[in-house]
Amino acid sequence: MTPTLMRQHLPLAGAAPRVDQATRARDWAEIQERMLVPLYEAVYERLEVGSGTRVLGLGCGSGLALLMAASRGATVTGIDAKSPERVRLARERLVPEDWGTRARAERLIIDGTLEDVADAVGASGEPGYREPAYNLVTAFEPIGCVAGDSEGLAELLTGAGPLVRRGTPVVLVGWGPPERCTTSSVLRVATMLADPLRTPGSWRPALRDDLEEVAQRAGLRPDGSGRVACPFGYADIDNAVRGLLSTGLFDAAVTATDQAQVEKEVTEALHPYQRGDGTVWMPNVFRYLIARMP
Q: pLDDT (tens digit, 9 = 90+) per residue, 193-208?
């Protein structure tokens, strides 16, 4: 492979994927993010999230999970350093410009690092009038589907330690086994298109212990788990293609080939799941692990 081709097809080496991230973020917020609502609800119900809960959401994206926690009375802080476009949407949802200072302080969205969270709420973790520490940490972005998708998560969880209380529950989320996730057959398109060039970020089958391995690396103590059905339902094929591409799981394939090729292949892979009325329906199962901070 020539140096020119390597620069084109190795995004982690410096070249940016040929992806419109603003459009991806909007499609995620408007189409795809709601598919995980049953998961968020199940976790919040199990942990009795309410007015006494102070949530630190790692990888908060466009903020739907935090919005749901806030609707239960929780105080929420979201952090996401990977997608400024999604963070902007989260701020629009959670902290409108016309809100008062106190209300805005109860919903903090940060495009940055945990150090930025500490600076925003005070070095001791005390955000002014609020209690001094978070008592729930969530990492709702599912792992175990793309090679290397958990890289850095254990380090991030460890870094959150000074901001939370001892024994605080931490929620990790992963894709269920391929035989329980019909979307797996569509996600294999990413591997098919990206693997010939050995592009990082290819799909792989979810493994049973993916979440436990992350918890172990972060020094967390597992304390329960569960599975939640999260079917992916779309109005039509075009809606499904936009939603699935917004996950970022196909970005490596777009980089390795082009947008049109990926859309064509995904469209073909979706046809078995299109119903007579044109809608698309794909049953899936996601798994969550509750672990405790040391």
A: 776 544 445 556 667 7
User: Per DSSP, what are the bridge partners of residue 75?
Assistant: 54
- 51-105 pLDDT, tens digit each: 999 999 999 999 999 999 999 999 999 999 888 999 999 999 998 765 555 555 5
AA identity, residue 245: L
Helix (H) or strand (E) holding 137, with range, is strand 136-143
Q: Which domains does the chain have, with CATH numbers?
A: 19-183+207-236+284-292 (3.40.50.150)
What is residue 109's three-state secondary structure? strand
3-class DSSP state of 89: helix
- 246 within 8 A of 27, measured Cβ to Cβ: yes
- Pick the range with the lowest mean pLDDT from 8-17, 31-40, 250-259, 279-288: 8-17
The answer to whether 206 and 286 have CB atoms below 8 angstroms apart is no
Residue 220 near residue 157, CB atoms below 8 Å: yes
Query: Could you tell me which residues are beta bridge partners of residue 56?
Result: 77, 137
- pLDDT surpassing 70 at residue 147: no
> Dihedral angle at the C-alpha atoms of 58, 63, 233, 226, nearest 10 degrees?
40
User: Looking at the predicted structure, is the pLDDT value of residue 2 above 50?
Assistant: no
The answer to whether the CB of 185 falls within 8 A of the CB of 270 is: no
Distance in angstroms (rounded) separating the CA atoms of residues 223 and 1: 48
The pTM (predicted TM-score) of the whole model is 0.85
Distances (CA, A) of 27 to 31, 70, 78, 176, 229: 5, 23, 20, 23, 22
The answer to whether residues 189 and 265 touch, using CB atoms and an 8 Å cutoff, is yes
Are residues 187 and 254 in contact, defined by beta-carbon separation less than 8 angstroms?
no
CB 86 within 8 A of CB 80: yes
